[in-house]
Amino acid sequence: QSTLATNAEYISTYTGYMKQLEPNVLASSDFQRNISAMATVANLSIVLAETDGRVVFASDGVTGSTLYGDSGVRLPAAVTSAIANGASFSGMLTISGLGGDSRYGVGYPITWTQNGQTGVGGIVLVSSDASSLTQMWRALAQIFFFTSVVVFILAFIASSITTARLSKPLHEMAQAVHRFGHGEFGVRLSGYENRRDEVGELATAFNSMADSLSKSEARRSEFVANVSHELRTPVTTVKSYVETILEGNIREEETLIPFLTVINKESDRMTSLITELLELSRID
Predict the structure, then answer these.
(1) How many whole angstroms separate alpha carbon 16 and alpha carbon 223?
(2) What pLDDT is recorded for position 132?
(3) At what angle do helices 198-246 and 253-283 cross, to 10 degrees?
């Protein structure tokens, strides 16, 4: 659009200057050859017309075709009305008699000065085949499509790597927790010491929890062993005394009373110990 506008403005200025030197310059063969050369170099279509839209000369730099004289070809009304209102024209148009293809064109008025007065002496329309725009959009669409595919593939690979990096340690932690729940208190997570992300923090927290639970389990086992020892002593004493009595080795009442006293004492000791254990459990 910018190129067409620049070329149209330049040709309009050039034509207006030449028209001041020669009022009938649009019909000049030398001038028309210059315009044809411009059209060929710029690879554009250049149309010169009167203010009423009647085409005087047209040259297509792409096909090399040239139109001379009054052939009855006219510019669209949208172009002539825009120039008549003192403005320029830009947009899509179709010119019957000049291929009939849809084109994008820019039109400028040819202004020239005569007797100190400035007037519009014609129209310059520079246009380009719209198929080039279609080709450009098709190329952009292909670039966008392939870029989207590449970005999708890269995103898929990156997400797969990230997912694997996150899911693998979580799977290992789930297995460790499962083993820990079955009494394997020596299970620890290794290989995550250097990770500075959430997974590394989770592994560190799990190992810390495992150490704490392992120590608690060791203390519990020690406590149970101590309690078992404390209970075993009075139970053994009571059992031995009862067996002695049951065997009939003690017949005199004076000898039996000390045995029963010991049994009663040890029973009280076990009762007190059990009461304390229940209280400890309640407090815990």
Answers:
(1) 112
(2) 66
(3) 170
> What separation in angstroms does the CA of 248 have from each of 21, 138, 242?
157, 115, 10
Nearest to 44 by CA among 109, 124, 137, 110: 124
- Residue 143 is encoded by which pair of tokens? 């670039």
The long-range contacts involving 225-232, CB below 8 angstroms and separated by at least 24 positions, are 227/273, 227/277, 230/273, 231/270, 231/273
| Predicted local confidence at residue 254, as pLDDT | 66
How far, CA to CA in Å, does 126 sit from each of 8, 16, 89?
A: 6, 15, 10
Q: Which of 271, 247, 270 is nearest to 259 (CA)?
A: 247
- Report the predicted TM-score, pTM, of the whole model to 2 decimal places: 0.48
Strand 89-93 with 117-129, pairing = unpaired
pLDDT tens column, 73-95: 888 888 888 888 878 888 888 87
Mean pLDDT, rounded, for 192-214: 83
pLDDT at 97: 67
Residue 69 is predicted with a pLDDT of 66
* Backbone dihedral angles phi then psi of residue 20, each to the nearest 5 degrees: -65, -35
Q: Would you tell me the crossing angle of helices 198-246 and 131-181 to the nearest 10 degrees?
A: 20
DSSP conformation letters of 135-185: HHHHHHHHHHHHHHHHHHHHHHHHHHHHHHHHHHHHHHHHHHHHHHHTT-T
- Output the six-digit token pair for 271: 């009762």
Cα–Cα distances (Å) from 157 to 6, 84, 145, 160, 180, in that order, read 48, 62, 18, 5, 34
Q: Report the number of secondary-structure helices (H) and strands (E) in the chain.
A: 6, 6
